[in-house]
User: What shape does this take?
Amino acid sequence: MLKTKQSKIVFFILFSIVLVCVLFFFFWFLSGDNFSSIKENRREYLVYTKYEKKDDPYSILIPYINIRSLEVKQINEDIETFLLPFVENEQSIITYEYTIMGDVLSLLLKVMDYSTGYAPQPHFKSYHIQLSSVTVLTDEEVLSLFQTNSSFVSITLENQFHDFY
Assistant: This one.
């Protein structure tokens, strides 16, 4: 009887250790970010800086969207095409911002072109990607997701500018 009690205790301890190891591995495997299944490179962020040049006073940060998709590949090529003239003129500041709101990744490219002479000229370009389906969204589709339209946004921005200035 003593031998069976000891063997039950040993079996319980071994079973507990194996169970803890399996659970630890399972949670460790799933501990990656929520978007690792759609990434090209799982070690990088969803959006990261592909090219960086920090020359005073003109700094350049060029983003790369790290999503495995033909549409996103086209966006990355479009980003490079859009930014290339500003990189080549060497008198521009190029930055970007991105955010993930719910299921939508939004990327905003911001360029201040100082090669225009008297006053710098700003340039903006945005991209929106629905992450669940990895599809590119138009501006109208993004606005409809937030239950608004472009005229409401325009009026709101205009009022904000009037209030500020």
User: Anything to note?
Assistant: The mean pLDDT is 85. The longest helix spans residues 2-30. The radius of gyration is 25 Å.
